[in-house]
Amino acid sequence: MPLRINVRMLLAAGVIVLLTACCLLFVAVRGAAASTPVDKKLSFTCPFPLIGLQKLDVNIKADFEVPTAPGGTLSTSGLTITVNVPDKAARGLNLVGAATIEGTAAAGVTLVNGDANPFPVRIPLDVAKTGLPPSGSFSTVAKGSVPTVTLAKPGKTTLTVGDFTTRLTPKKADGSFTGIGSFTSDCALDPGQDAVLLSFDLGDKPAGHRYSIGGKTGVKALGATAPLTGAFDLSPTAATVFSGGPVFDKAHTEFRLFGFVPGAADLEFVADGPQGGDLTGTGFVARPRFTTVLPLVTLVGMPVSSGPDCKTSAPSTAELRTGTGFTLAAGGALTGTYSLAPLTGCGAFTPYLSTFVQGEGNTFDLVLTPRKA
User: 201: Cβ–Cβ under 8 A, 6 or more apart, which residues?
Assistant: First the structure.
């Protein structure tokens, strides 16, 4: 009879540790945008050998980051899953020689996104090894890794807690097994509860925008500026992400080397790979990647380099940020900086020209104006 009581205590403590691990799954779906706090209490019934059905409670707390449009992802932060194991269970574990308890779990959650079919997720978790005190209550913490979930459809989106399975192993201080070995338990959510952990409406994807570009670029090493014109197309691909970027017309700058040698250069900013950035509030951050081509460079009116092979030896990446008062509908200021790599392909004057072009601190000062076509 005493052994039967100890086993009950041990199994009850193991179930509490399990529940900590499984609850981590329910709040750990990852992915991006407006913070939503969650504080949820649920109960589960778990069948175990010798002691039969056991009801256990859990409190789930987390801050979800929910997307605002299809194509965004769902994530969580500030997760707190704390289970206080009572003194009785701790003493029961010690009576059978257990110093730690650990194991694995397979927990379930169901995601419904708009009119899509329910998407069940079954994810393995590790129950961290937890040291047991000689007496008194103790807390357990478990962790798991869950893949990012992309929400592709508009409409109501819910995340609902499901059942779980665990296999737990109490061990002695030397790492050996206790007399009861490992045990498996399949636990079910008690009926009559609101098992929805998170629910929100996912709106349509933001509309795209097309702008005309006006402004200038500054080449720091030359101490010169060049007027810029062009176009900027912005196409949201998710709630906070867009594709597209600036396409500049050929530019021309005039400069003076050493303060008195007149020179001029044509500039072309040629996109290198896919372009895009992030939507932020009423504006955005664009990260265009481009190669700078100098198809014509003259000094004292005479060409020293001509042709499309004269260009930077590596692409540049600018970070362009919208300014105060910018809106996607009305446009506004867009500024940023970029670096220029050494030149290549400029003929005999390549090293010389490179000295006067390469370097950091180059600038874009632009104004975007909406256009209809």
Answer: 155, 156, 157
Average pLDDT over residues 19-29: 35
246 contacts 287 by C-beta, under 8 angstroms: no
pLDDT of amino acid 314: 97
- Asked if 68 and 200 count as a contact pair (C-beta separation under 8 A), the reply is no
Please give the model's pTM, rounded to 2 decimal places.
0.53
**Which are the contacts of 194, defined by CB distance < 8 A and separation ≥ 6?**
none
Q: What is the pairing mode between strands 302-306 and 52-66? A: unpaired
What is Dmax (Cα atoms) for the chain? 105
> DSSP labels for 243-282?
E--EEEPPEEEEEEETTTEEEEEEEEEEE-S--EEEEETT
- Separation CA 302–CA 124 (nearest Å): 71
Query: What residue segments make up the domains of the chain, in order of their start?
Result: 2-202, 209-370
Containing H/E element for 124? Answer: strand 119-131
**Strand blocks (E) in 301-371:** 302-306, 311-312, 316-317, 319-322, 332-340, 343-344, 359-370
Who contacts 356 (Cβ-Cβ below 8 Å, separation ≥6)?
Answer: 221, 222, 257
- Which letter does DSSP use for residue 99 in this model? S
Closest alpha carbon to 249 in 293, 289, 207, 210: 293
Q: Which of 32-46, 95-109, 317-331 has the lowest mean pLDDT?
A: 32-46
How many Å apart are CA 44 and CA 92, to the nearest integer?
22
Beta strands 332-340 and 359-370 are antiparallel
Percent of the chain, pLDDT > 90? 42
State how far the alpha carbon of 147 is from the alpha carbons of 74, 288, 304, in Å.
10, 29, 56
What band does 88 get if pLDDT is binned at 50, 70 and 90? low
Pull the structure tokens for residue 189: 């959510």
CATH class of 2-202: mainly beta
Report pLDDT for 15: 40
Which of 369, 335, 333, 373 is CA-nearest to residue 212?
369
Q: Which amino acid is at 344?
A: T
Say what the alpha-carbon torsion angle 165, 166, 167, 171 is, to the nearest 10 degrees: -170
